[in-house]
Design brief:
By secondary structure, the chain is mainly alpha-helical. Helix content is 73%, strand content 0%. α5 crosses α6 and α8 packs across α9.
Length: 165
C-alpha cells in the first residue's frame, strides 16, 4: 500500500469503519503470512495481528509513516521478540511453499530455479505487502537490483501462460 493512502487510513482508523476495514483487510493477511514464514506458527500470527490492531485502537500515531510494511512488520517483530523470544527464520522451504501459494504450481515451475533472494522478494511483495523499495531496504540492496529480480521472475512465471489461447 502506498504511504499516502496508508497514512490517511491510519489517521481515520478509530473513527471510520471503512478505513479500519481497509487496514484490516490489507495487513492482517500480510502479518499472518510473515509470521508463518519467519516463526512457523499460525497461532502466533493471529496473536501478533490482534496485538497490532489493538495497538492501533489505543495509540495516538501522529507521525507520517514513510514505509508502511516495514513499520507494521517492525512493530510485530518487536512484539514477538519481547513476548515470545523466538528467533526468526527465513527457511527456504517455507519461502518456496509461499511462492507456490502466490503463483500457483504451474507458474512456480517456471521460477523455482531462481535464486533465494528472488524467491524471498516474491514472497515479501505478494504475501507480506512490502513494496520493492521496502524490500530493498530490508535486504540491504539497491532497489534496481530487486526490481530486476522481481521483473525477471514475473516474466518467467508468465511463460506458463504463453501457450494458452
Amino acid at each position: 500500500m502506498k504511504s499516502d493512502r496508508f497514512n490517511k487510513l491510519l489517521k481515520e482508523y478509530k473513527t471510520n469503519y471503512d478505513s479500519c476495514q481497509a487496514l484490516l483487510d490489507t495487513y492482517y493477511p500480510y502479518i499472518m503470512m510473515r509470521t508463518i514464514r519467519r516463526y512457523g506458527s499460525k497461532e502466533l500470527g493471529h496473536l501478533v495481528a490482534q496485538y497490532f490492531f489493538g495497538l492501533l485502537e489505543e495509540a495516538e500515531i501522529t507521525r507520517y509513516v514513510e514505509n508502511p510494511a516495514i513499520w507494521v512488520h517492525n512493530i510485530c517483530d518487536s512484539f514477538i521478540k519481547q513476548n515470545y523470544v523466538q528467533t526468526p527464520s527465513d527457511d527456504n522451504e517455507t519461502v518456496i511453499e509461499l511462492c507456490k501459494f502466490a503463483f500457483g504450481e504451474e507458474q512456480f515451475e517456471k521460477i523455482e530455479n531462481c535464486d533465494a533472494v528472488t524467491l524471498l522478494t516474491i514472497v515479501m511483495n505478494t504475501c507480506e505487502g512490502f513494496s520493492l523499495d521496502e524490500i530493498a531496504q530490508v535486504l540491504g540492496m539497491e532497489t534496481v537490483e530487486i526490481e530486476e529480480k522481481f521483473s525477471f521472475a514475473l516474466q518467467k512465471a508468465n511463460e506458463a501462460y504463453s501457450g494458452v489461447v
